[in-house]
Amino acid sequence: MKKTLKSIPIIQGLFDSLCRIITRISPKLNTKFHFLVSFGRIPDLKNPQTLNEKISVLKLNNYNKNKLVQQCADKYEVRQYIKNKGCEDILVPLIAVYDSVDEIEWDKLPNAFAMKWNFGCGFNIICDNKSQLDIEETKQKMRKWGNDKSYLNYAELQYEHIKKRIIVEQYLKPRQGLLPEDYKIYCLNGIPSYIMVCVGRENSGQTKFYYLNSNWELEREMSFDGCKAPAEFSIEKPKCLDELLKKAKILSEDFPFVRTDFYIVDEKIYFGELTFTPSGGVDSGRKKEADIIMGNILNIE
Length: 301
Description:
With 301 residues, the chain is an alpha+beta fold. It is built from 9 helices and 9 strands. The protein has 3 domains: 1-40; 43-91 and 176-301, D-amino Acid Aminotransferase, Chain A, domain 1, CATH 3.30.470; 93-171, no CATH class.
């Protein structure tokens, strides 16, 4: 995998620190800075056209102060939203909730579980065998994450006032590997429009991303990996696709844009999270064509 300056930890750390300072000065300035770094241009926030631009406008003018968005960005409080929507059946069973690392009752946790902070992205511990878990190391990692203010990196202020909690959920055992199959559905104007499937998530640096439409047809031109895929390439269609899209529609109807993330284990759907600003609204992993196509569909007026 090609390395960039930002892939060097010390450079990434300095870059993040700069971004956090800029957010404190002006969230809009942060967004313009990220666009310039990622795409070599300043975003048009007055007349947005692409999906990234429109998500950025929502992030700066709506989602930063929208109480429902703030509730649903909280990985614990969103559970009540799911219940209110009549979708409690897709919630991953909750084992425990803690306010701090020191409260965790390790001896009472099952042999396998998923532990995560309720804010931000990537603060997860997936344990399939507690006897092999280094608890002290895990405590240190969770404490470090608990002090994180990564919402400042991309001015994702919907996370700013979340009461921090640690959630422990049932471990979803996949057919193979450690992580279950992951389906991220881009919902535009309350309509599930495109499904992003991540392949090879367990191999760091080797994850591939593919976009499919709601008819489960591969949209090759929308991702770099899709363009490279051989003619015979296909992704197995879930038997519960219709139900998956139905759940996505129900959970997205209150928002102009949200990505509804789900897992499927043994043909059963489980809720993952609601993502309002994928990649902070500066997703350079999508092709320009995809950004334009989805931007044309999304109406934020």
